[in-house]
Each structure stands twice: as C-alpha cells, then as structure tokens.
C-alpha cells in the first residue's frame, strides 16, 4: 500500500519541476535546444550520459557524509560508504591502477579544489611551484599571476614560476624548464594544461622533478578520458600525484579526483584525505560521486576506447582541413582532443571569432596563443572535439564543421575590411550580415541531424518560441 501524498505545506516536495517551477524548467528546455541545435567546440566541455545525469539528479543529494567510508562524522552512511568505495574501485580500474600502489580521493567538488587540496596536502605556504604558464596553455590553478596581480590562490599562497612552450615550435621547452628548475628549486612540478594540443614527455619531467627532489603532479583534467583509454601517454608511470576533472574527456558529472601514490610515502594517503576534508571542503556531494561512479564504469568499457580514439581522429581531421587552407595551428596540429588556432596571421582576434561563431551557433572560446602581447586581446581560439565526438560525429563531419569555420573566417575578413577593426562596429555589422544568418541556418540543420546524449527522443526537444 502506498502512502498518501501530503496536501499541506509539504505538497511542493512532490511536484515535478515543470509544475513546481516552470521558469527554471523553461530555461532547461532552452538550454537543451541550444545544445542540440548548435556545435559545441569548447574543449573543456562534453556531453555526459543519461545514466550519469540520473545518478547526479538523485536522492543521494540529501545525505551528509563528512569523512571517509567507514569513518564518518554522521550516521546513516551504510549505502553512501558502499557508493564511495565503489567509485574508488572504479576510478582505479578505469586507469588500470594497482590498489596496492595507488589510492584515490573521489570527493573533490571540482578540478580547482582537487588541485588546491593537493597543494594543501604536500606543500607549506610559500613553497615553490612550477606549472605551464597560462599563455603557454597551462591552467590558472597551476600558479597563475600577472605583473600587477596574483590571480590564482595557487600564486597567492605559493611562490610560482611558470615554464613555457618554445615560441617557434609551440612544444614545451623541457630544456628551459630543467634549467629554470635548477635555479628556482621547486617543491612541486606540475604538468598538464588547458590549451596544449600535444602529448607530454612525463619521463623528461620526472627527470627534472627528481633532480630537485620535487614532487611531480600531473593535472590531466582535459585528457583524462584519453589517458584512461590509453590513447595518450601514461602519467601514472612517473607521477606522485595525478588530479583530474571528471567532466571533460572523461565524460562524467562536474567534479574532481585526486590519485596519489601510496608506496613511496606512507603518509601521503592521510595527507591527501585530510586536505580534501576538513582542510578544503565540507560534506561530499554524494549525488555527484554516484555520477562519477557511473561515468567510470563507462570509461572502463571497451566502447570508451573507441570513443577516445575517435576524438583524436576527429581532431586530426579538423586540423588537416584547417591546415590545408593555410591557417596557422599551434604546433601545426594536434595529438589530443583540442586544436589551438592562431588567428594573428589573418589579422583577426580570438574575441571577434568567438562572438561571430556565437551568432552562427558554433560555440568555442577565445584563447591566448604563445607570444600574445596582451592577455586582453587573445590572438587565437581553442577548438575541442569531445562534445562533437559524443554526438557521434566522425572525420567527414569534422570536415563539414571545418568548412563552417572557414565561412566564419571569410565573413569576418569581409566585415573587417568594410567597417575596420573596432569590436563594436564589427559586431554590429555581423549581427545583420546575411552570410551569418545563412550560416546559422546551415549549422542548425547539420547539428540537429545528430542525437544529443541524455535525450532519448530528440523530437521532444522544443525550439524556444522567443
Ligand atoms: C587543466 C585544468 N585543471 C583544472 C581545471 C579546473 O576545473 P574546474 O573548472 O572543475 O574547477 C581545468 C578547467 O578547465 C583545467 O583545464
């Protein structure tokens, strides 16, 4: 016999979203249409699975579970303990790690907090760190600061000295890094980035870290799906710690993971766990941990390797087509899921192309390219193939997407030659340009011919009326 639903102040707790809050429901529907009808090329994004979203939107959001499985500060965690242990096991399995050598904390709320918790675990305030500089494709949380301001907490609480890519080749200047490490004497060397289109030489980095007695950490946020599928080099072979987000190529919900070696330092496990909670975070987001567990199960499946291989094939197909047109790509191509496109030879800026792509319903982001004089006007854009690959696109589809991008460039050059370089004038002209309107229509027709992960029936997706 089922229990009757209340008809009092608790009534709202049983109403579906569309009834309880049509305003939010409408926004979700509009966003679903946006994702379905556009081309998502943001390299840090992906489209997660229906099962992950179900777990992430589940009743697990209700439970507090500060602490670790078997050692919680609250009662009632018998199932949450099972969940977190399952997630840990799956994380180690997805990356083919021996549980005697590696442990994992699955509680970080995001990649940034995973990184800061790692620093908290193994560094003292004002210890020295070296990460790939932001203009070279690194990430904010690896110590970014400008001449005027310490931007990231990782540069406020630690002394940071970036390494760079070689300005000619775009490849990491491992030699320069080694020399500077010898002078700067970092306690932690960080690998990984957000806009680096090539694989990493972990053996070389380990040599540098070892020469200084420094920890080696790899932040594989962008490439973790590719690492799990073994289509990129394996950082676990050389690193003390590996952090990642779970929502980029790994294709899970938005969160982070910290993997740590247990065999070299008996205290490492305790240091990492204590840094996540209570030092940096509070209660774990158990609904998210359930979503991560689901995504990690998928990542251990042979089909995931096919997906990861297709990402790289798609990147190469896109790079090939743009290269053929004579455009300048950082490092002349890509080994992973992303391409960094240097627009400076075309006398266009990343901001203009980002905005004009938005008008055409192609989503990408402006990005600094090595050698940019001002961070305010990035000279390039970053293209990622994760989301398009999850929608089922293959090499020939990448050629079509490249053709759309080539149209964007041609229209941008035409507008710029008419109205000059000022962004406001450029945008005003772009908004009423017939070529952009036609491109928008062509993009929409193409994009809506592919399924949208998580939505079983695309005919249920409604175009917003406004
Ligand atoms: C390399 C790298 N690390 C960390 C992060 C931060 O992740 P989050 O946005 O989940 O905090 C990102 C995000 O793009 C990233 O690219």
Can you walk me through this structure?
The protein has 466 residues and is of the alpha/beta class. The protein folds into two domains: 59-299, Type I PLP-dependent aspartate aminotransferase-like (Major domain) (Aspartate Aminotransferase, domain 2), CATH 3.40.640; 302-460, Aspartate Aminotransferase, domain 1, CATH 3.90.1150. It has 17 helices and 15 strands. The strands form four sheets. Strands 4-10-9-8-7-5-6 form a seven-stranded mixed sheet, sandwiched between helices. Helix 7 (174-184) runs parallel beside helix 8 and helix 13 packs across helix 15. The longest helix has 25 residues, at 395-419. The two termini are 46 Å apart. The model has no long low-confidence stretch (mean pLDDT 97). Pyridoxal-5'-phosphate is lined by residues 44, 110-112, 115, 139, 141, 192-194, 219, 221-222, 245, 256. Belongs to the SHMT family. Its EC number is 2.1.2.1. Keywords: Methyltransferase, One-carbon metabolism, Pyridoxal phosphate, Transferase. Residues 17-404 form the Serine hydroxymethyltransferase-like domain. Pathway: One-carbon metabolism; tetrahydrofolate interconversion.
CATH topology heading of the largest domain: Aspartate Aminotransferase, domain 2
| Distinct helical segment count | 17
In percent terms, what proportion of residues is strand? 5-15%
* CATH architecture field of the largest domain: 3-Layer(aba) Sandwich
Which oligomeric form is depicted? single chain
The major sheet is characterized as: 7 strands, mixed
